[in-house]
Write a structure and sequence with these properties.
Largest sheet: 7 strands, parallel
Number of domains: 1
CATH topology: Rossmann fold
Structural class: alpha/beta
Radius of gyration: 17 Å
CATH superfamily: NAD(P)-binding Rossmann-like Domain
CATH architecture: 3-Layer(aba) Sandwich
């Protein structure tokens, strides 16, 4: 990191920042933040590689282990993390869990596991981020949804339901915390290239969303990360509670 560089942000926290979109977001903020903090669940080696990528781009990176949802309702681990990285200006929640399961009662346990991780985990992150950012002058939180909330596919009911819930949750936090300087928005990307989640989706499903020969039109994660960096900045200070599609027009 150059000694003459004046960072635009203090600390930036990327929840689930070890691969795919999360890693791209971390690298996107490398040169505009004093430090980028990345969380991982159980893949420490990947987290270390992501941190090395931030360093390659001229930034300072720190990794933290975090599991969602937190074991206790009050999310002590998340609160401790946010306090450790304060003052924090930006939180990007890229963490996601998915279990492929069709809508039958026999898959109720898988459905609940996805909802607990994706929805309640996001609630814990959002709630504690709101309090922490508000106490240090405000900031911006970005959640990640999916165009599958508009283009349903069989076998992903838990994942899709969780993403739809996150969109509405974002609006609620935006309404309740926007007045004290904390903005909440959601990015809804189409199929992103080179992600672990994409590897779990059958080829015919992606083709149904993007059309034949979709491989060349998969969205590079850096393109979505660039949009996230823009919307947390001052040029988008009036944007709060929105769902922004970044999907090459797939949801049209």
């Amino acid at each position: 990191m150059s000694e003459t560089r004046s960072p635009q942000y203090r600390n930036v926290l990327v929840v689930g920042g070890t691969s795919g979109l999360g890693q791209a977001v971390a690298r996107e903020f490398a040169q505009v933040a004093q430090a980028v903090h990345l969380t991982y669940h159980d893949r420490r080696e990947e987290a270390e590689k992501a941190a090395a990528g931030v360093a390659e781009d001229g930034g300072a990176a720190h990794i933290h282990q975090l599991s969602l949802p937190a074991d206790d309702v009050g999310a002590t681990a998340i609160r401790r993390l946010l306090l450790d990285v304060s003052p924090c200006d930006v939180v990007v929640n890229c963490a996601v869990t998915n279990h492929v399961a069709v809508a039958t009662i026999s898959n109720a346990e898988a459905f609940k596991a996805v909802i607990d991780a994706n929805v309640f985990g996001a609630y814990q992150v959002n709630a504690i981020s709101a309090q922490t950012l508000a106490s240090t002058g405000g900031g911006s939180v970005v959640n990640v949804s999916s165009i599958l909330t508009r283009r349903y596919v069989t076998g992903a009911i838990g994942y899709i339901t969780s993403k739809a819930a996150i969109e509405m949750m974002t609006r609620g936090f935006a309404r309740e915390w926007g007045g004290v300087g904390v903005r909440f928005n959601t990015i809804s990307p189409g199929p992103i290239r080179d992600t672990r989640l994409l590897a779990t989706v059958p080829r015919e499903v992606v083709e149904n969303i993007m059309g034949p020969g979709f491989e060349d039109r998969l969205i590079p994660p850096g393109r979505v990360a660039a949009v996230i960096r823009q919307i947390v900045g001052p040029d988008f200070a009036a944007m709060n509670g929105e769902v922004l599609f970044v999907d090459e027009g797939c949801s049209l």
